[in-house]
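haha ok so turns out i had the wrong file open the whole time. this is the CORRECT one, sorry everyone. sequence first:
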Amino acid sequence: MKVLLLLSLLACILAMGQSKIFERCKLAQKLKKMGLDGYAGYSLANWVCTADHESRYNTAATHYNDYDGSTDFGIFQINSRYWCQYGSEPSSNICKIQCSELLTDDIAPDVACAKIVVDESEDGMGAWVAWRLYCQGPDVSQYVAGCGL
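then structure:
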């Protein structure tokens, strides 16, 4: 019994070690290096604002959507109904990835898929409710202020 408990605890620790909560400026620097500054006409501050309001910069964030049974994943809360494959759940899987790839400290799949979302969605960044509610319109420059970019 103690061995099972120890193994369960170890598995949880290892799983947590694969995710990351970014500091705002570190995320901004990383997103800039990954080509999001100005991507599809959206400033880096818009991307950081979206990540803040979608996941609080947490790569392991998930959110189940009662209204349609889909789940949002990762730092940008990318939806399983359209953009990634979650188990046997029906999905368009437009980004051609497993949703679990969006939950690690490597945000390259998140960024690649976010670019596809902006390119393929009729609404651009409007595909993210958080962007529409909190980032569209107001001055979002504070999301990159003091980051030395």
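The helical segments are 2-17, 24-33, 44-55, 108-120, 129-135.
again sry for the mixup
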